[in-house]
Request: fold
Amino acid sequence: KNIYMTFSIVASNPSTKELCVATSTGLVAVGDLVPCILPNVGAICVQATVNPSYRATILNLMKKGFSNESAFDHVLKNDKKKEHRQIIVVNAKGQSHIFSGQKIIDISDSCMEDNFAIAGNMLASASVISSMKKTFLNNANVFFPKRLLLTLIAGEEAGGDKRGCMSAAMEYFKPNRRIMTLRIDYSNNPLKELSMALEQRFSEECKEAFDR
Reply:
């Protein structure tokens, strides 16, 4: 079974229609199973005990007009493992929602406000999520993907995953552009490498390619 104890953020900028998700964990290849964006609809992370199909199912329900909460309820109502799952979502309007089961490995925590949701489990300290929230709110004018990366880094500096970080991933959507996906699947310092990858991706030369 797929178990990704991790810490993550999903965020929306309704004024620009940007969506972004960023996540890191003490296991390999978090980008394969945890994060997802559906353009103009929302961004999601499915973590703890992971059912990867929930990402597309929930986002597609939202596309059809389901509220965040009703989409979660529809998917989880007959799920015998739901108390082992943690799911965060934000839609393109900035409305966020969290499901955090009762049997997730501690330390687990989450928070949400307009435009973002943050959650983690098997955390090294109780301050991981609050540190992430503070950093996200304090960097409102930073380039959107960089803002989420700084948020992840704050989580790691507050302890992050109690096993340390082995992989990290980010997805970013801007209208009229294809989704940008950056993945560091195995590293002793995945957030540093993710930061380097993001800087390279948005160097002038790469930005031109992205904008085409």
